[in-house]
Amino acid sequence: MAEQINIEVVYGLPDHQVLLALKVELGCDILSGIQQSGIVQHFPEIEPESASVGIFSRAAKLSQALRDGDRIEIYRPLIADPKELRKIRAERAKAEGRASKVTGGRPVAKVSES
Question: pTM (2 decimals)?
Fold first, then answer.
């Protein structure tokens, strides 16, 4: 019998999270761990073969071998690009006068001379 290790598989939505603990064979990769966990039964929208994953918040490849105690985290796709959103907010701040049109920083208050 092959040696077994303990792992966890985690996925969550804003209102519902699931953490599954299971034993897999030593040498099992992340993809196999996800498939063996049965998490797709809880969240049918997960596509294990193309999922973005990590081990304890560090991005990982589906082919990475698991070690005892690893927690596989399955990440949801971003609904908006954070860089693009920041650019939109910066443009809006410039248009509203809350940011300098030249530097993008806060505008310097002008001191009136008497």
Answer: 0.69
